[in-house]
Write a structure and sequence with these properties.
Layout lengths: L1 E2 L4 E5 L2 E9 L10 E12 L4 E13 L4 E11 L6 E10 L5 E8 L5 E9 L5 E6 L3 E6 L2 E6 L6 E6 L2 E8 L3 E9 L13 H7 L1 E7 L4 E4 L12 E12 L2 E10 L3 E6 L2 E7 L5 E8 L5 E7 L4 E6 L3 E7 L2 E7 L8 E6 L11 E4 L5 E4 L7 H54 L9 H4 L30 E9 L2 E8 L11 E6 L9 E2 L2 E5 L29 H7 L13 E8 L1 H4 L3 E16 L2 E18 H5 L18 H10 L1 E9 L5 H8 L4 E3 L6 E4 L9 E8 L2 E8 L2 H12 L6 E6 L4 H32 L16 H4 L3 H35 L4
Antiparallel strand pairs: 1-3, 2-3, 3-4, 4-5, 6-7, 7-8, 8-9, 10-11, 11-12, 12-13, 14-15, 15-16, 16-17, 18-19, 19-20, 20-21, 22-23, 23-24, 24-25, 26-27, 27-28, 28-29, 30-31, 31-35, 32-33, 32-36, 34-35, 36-37, 38-42, 38-43, 39-40, 40-41, 41-42
Length: about 850
């Protein structure tokens, strides 16, 4: 087949896609009625430093009496599956000036799919964009038109646009078109009163248009109106909703050959561009986490602007055919692929530059001897790169000095902590050095004159901090009373040993004053995640500087393994849940809240428990009148797309709920329907205190269910439900199954982390061994002191010492086997004795 001259390049998943129209081989006597759309997938070979063809595909198009050409190609999200696919828009010109446009999708198997087509009585020339759907958007006669695969109907937007500078996704708005249009002058002002500069500013304005909601967005959150007349292209780098406000970070290029960085509508930096007539800008994030801006010019030149302390040109090239951004080397970060124009008809991708202005730097097909301008350009790029590297080196040296100083500080703190730990174990009072003496910033409140009259018997471990509780609260949820005690960060007790008791304050002679309840320990941050920190020493509260304790893996390396059960750092809430209806029989009841815990200390390189302690937290009053008035009820109300429940309300709901976690994996489609199901059908809103979890407001049994949806990647996520009972769980899963794709795999996960489950299993096994040991000792003593039916008088169960059996896994198995044999033998002996006595009774004899 004969390939056309025009090639269109597109990067997709680290590969280069080359689209090209071709004619099949001509057969005599046959009319030329077809055209082929060819695609070649090229991947970078790191061994040969070249791009090689990986696969190819073909799409035949009927093209009799037609002239067909490729308009543009881009990547867009398929709304049916949520997967991003390459899209190609083609034009076929018919007679009578009627133009037919065709959009096709390319799948991973190199199979083309015709998405939709449409006809127009004019030719598309201005601001053609492809976006989610897939959809096509264009501008004609200062009007905005678009068509999507869902409707296949051309629609017009009620806006007047003189240019479109960007099309993309904005948080909570969907697809948004940014452009400039004629400004609406204030009606209260006379047009003659405006000066020439005022007319220049107010003659054009910048605004956004949400395609799905047909909503107008003010341009001031993107940039001031004064820039609307000079901006030619925009790229939105980051957009998010913070405190109910849209925050935008973008970069724009202007007709005055400038690149300007805007943040929240205000200019933050500007850079002069080396060439004239910039036409587009895109970004790349390199391996060194640098943000690069790639600017293309109408002359075929490009330049790269680096954003550090200021915007500066880092590199530039001339005579560029195309520039692509993707992870071509498979290193996990993006690189720039610069395709240079070729003087002769050589192989595709034979002349290119692949770089990230750092570690990755490959070039091919450049003759440095005969191509003097290219060599001069490379030399200039080398100087710019050296300048950028010098700046990076200076910043690196400063970081190294700061790290060295921080390491010295940590070393001194660790040494002092070791001394304090030794004093703690030996029950000596540790005197903290002053900050001036050690040259350190104090991590706690220094005691200038510590008392020396403390006796050795007064150990630090046996003390309870005076201020150990932040708050005591109570809530009524359904038929349950929830009482919570929020502990302070300085109350260093093992969470596994902390519990609450509710004791009635009245004198009831016929019933027990102790109320039966179940306990839960909850420690939350705003993302509903717990932070467990291991430590062996009780320290005063931090004062000026805090070490970074957010890495669990680092902490496991720094602290001994025997201390992993002690959890510190951060507020912890201990919750007691009891049945409400028995308490309402007394009409009015006063309960004392007691907190129980165990103090721990270390002796002889092992963890030993100290005495139990009981602390009075306070009293709670409960009356039928207060409950009827809703004084202690939870209040989960909607307020501007948020649930306004307090932290105590959230904890109360979680305490009475049962937690279930499900892993959802989809092989063929993304899991975008799950979020739509939560916000739509389930009528969920995020908590104002904890945005990661959402509260179900749907009327019926499912009201009050709490969801947490976490996406690991677009095809896998974990859905956690906090529901009242299994009936609500089944109702939620039944509703979810209707929106999930058929190929989804849903798996129930065990609650708790891997380390917690491992620790629970170890404790269960230890408890089992202790029970078996005690049972064996009792059996052994009975065998020694008495005789049993069917056994010899001197026969014992085993002559092997018990301690030696339990020292190894094989010994434990042997011990279990012998104990099982003894139990079976005991059952047989009991049966034999019973039958013998029965026979004697029937015979009338004495046995």
């Amino acid at each position: 087949m004969l390939l056309g001259k025009e090639e269109h390049f597109l990067s997709y998943n680290g590969e280069v896609l080359i689209f090209q129209l071709s004619k099949p081989k001509h057969v005599e006597g046959a009319a030329d009625k077809t055209m082929n759309l060819c695609v070649r997938r090229m991947s970078f070979n790191r061994d040969t430093k070249l791009f090689v063809q990986k696969s190819s595909g073909l799409f035949s198009i009927r093209a009799s009496h037609l002239k067909i050409e490729i308009i543009c190609c881009s990547c867009a999200t398929d709304s049916r599956t949520g997967i991003i696919l390459p899209c190609v828009l083609m034009k076929k010109k018919k007679q009578n000036n009627v133009f037919r446009y065709l959009l096709v999708l390319l799948h991973g198997s190199n199979q083309f799919e015709q998405s939709f087509y449409f006809k127009l009585d004019y030719e598309l020339k201005e601001d053609i964009r492809l976006f989610t759907g897939p959809s096509v958007l264009w501008r004609h006669a200062n009007k905005l038109f678009y068509i999507s695969s869902d409707t296949c109907t051309v629609r017009s937007a009620p806006v007047q646009l003189s240019s479109v500078v960007w099309t993309g996704e904005i948080a909570d708005e969907g697809t948004v078109v940014l452009g400039t249009g004629t400004a609406c002058l204030p009606e209260s002002e006379d047009e003659d009163e405006f000066s020439t500069s005022d007319r220049a500013v107010w003659g054009s304005e910048f605004f956004g248009y949400a395609v799905k909601t047909q909503k107008m967005l003010t341009g001031t959150c993107f940039m001031p109106h004064a820039y609307s007349r000079v901006v030619s292209s925009v790229y939105v780098c980051k957009n998010e909703i913070s405190k109910k406000q849209l925050r935008i970070s973008l970069v724009a290029i202007t007709h005055k050959n400038q690149l300007i960085w805007f943040q929240d509508g205000l200019p933050k930096g500007v850079c002069e561009l080396p060439y004239e007539k910039p036409c587009s800008v895109k970004t790349a994030v390199t391996s060194s986490s640098d943000l690069l801006f790639i600017v293309s010019f109408a002359s075929g030149n490009i330049c790269v602007v680096q954003r550090r302390d200021s915007l500066q040109v880092a590199c530039k090239w001339q005579k560029v055919k195309s520039v692509l951004v993707d992870d071509f080397t498979g290193s996990g970060s993006e690189q720039l692929l610069v395709l240079l124009k070729e003087d002769s008809n050589t192989e595709v991708l034979s002349t290119f530059i692949l770089t990230d202005l750092g570690e990755v730097n490959y070039a091919s097909g450049i003759n440095y001897k005969h191509d003097v301008p290219a060599a001069e350009g490379l030399q200039e790029n080398g100087l710019l790169t050296v300048q950028a590297l010098e700046t990076r080196l200076q910043a690196g040296c400063t970081s190294v000095r700061e790290l060295q100083q921080h390491l010295r500080l940590k070393k001194k703190v660790i040494l002092e902590s070791c001394r304090a730990l030794i004093d703690l174990v030996e029950e000596r009072t540790h005197i903290l050095p002053t900050a001036k003496k050690e040259g350190l910033v104090s991590l706690w409140d220094d005691v200038e004159n510590p008392p020396h009259s403390l006796s050795k018997e007064t150990s630090l471990v046996s003390k309870v901090p005076e201020h150990f509780m932040e708050k005591l609260w109570q809530r009524v949820v359904g038929d349950s009373l929830v009482v919570g005690v929020e502990l302070t960060a300085s109350f260093y007790l093992s969470l596994s040993d902390v519990s609450l008791s509710l004791v009635m304050d009245q004198d009831f002679s016929l019933i027990s004053p102790i109320i039966e309840c179940r306990n839960k320990i909850i420690k939350l941050n705003k993302a509903f995640s717990a932070l467990s920190v291991s430590s062996c020493q009780i320290e005063p509260p931090p004062k000026k500087m805090k070490l970074d304790l957010h890495s669990k893996n680092d902490l496991k390396k720094e602290f001994p393994k025997r201390c992993s059960q002690i959890q510190l750092d951060g507020a912890k809430t201990v919750i007691a849940v009891t049945s409400l209806s028995p308490l309402l029989a007394f009409h009015r009841v006063c309960c004392v809240v007691l907190l129980h815990a165990k103090k721990q200390k270390h002796q002889n390189d092992s963890l030993q428990e100290s005495k139990n302690i009981t602390v009075l937290c306070g009293k709670i009053l409960l009356s039928l009148e207060d409950i009827s008035n809703g004084k202690y009820s939870i209040k989960m109300l909607r307020d501007n797309s948020y649930c306004t429940g307090s932290m105590e309300d959230i904890l109360a709901v979680l305490a009475v709920s049962v937690r279930f976690s499900f892993q959802i994996v989809s092989s063929g489609c993304t899991l975008t329907p799950v979020n739509a199901w939560l916000l739509g059908e389930m009528e969920c809103t995020p908590f104002k205190e904890c945005h990661d979890s959402i509260f179900c407001h749907k009327a019926g049994n499912m009201y009050g269910t709490v969801f947490n949806w976490t996406l690991k990647n677009p095809f896998e996520g974990v859905l956690t439900l906090f529901c009242r009972n299994l009936t609500v769980l089944f109702q939620c899963l039944h509703s979810l199954s209707r929106v999930l794709p058929p190929s989804c795999d849903v798996k129930l996960l065990r609650s708790g982390s891997k380390s917690i489950l491992t620790e629970q299993l170890a404790l269960a096994l230890e408890k089992e061994i202790l029970i078996l040991r005690s049972s064996f000792f009792s059996k052994e003593s009975k065998a020694e002191n008495s005789l049993t039916w069917g056994n010899d008088p001197g026969k014992k169960i085993s002559d092997v010492p018990v301690a030696s059996l339990l020292d190894s896994e094989e010994g434990v198995q042997q011990f279990r086997k012998k104990l099982q044999n003894e139990r079976e033998e005991s059952v047989l002996n009991t049966t034999y004795a019973s039958r013998k006595r029965t026979a004697c009774d029937l015979a009338g004899t004495t046995c």
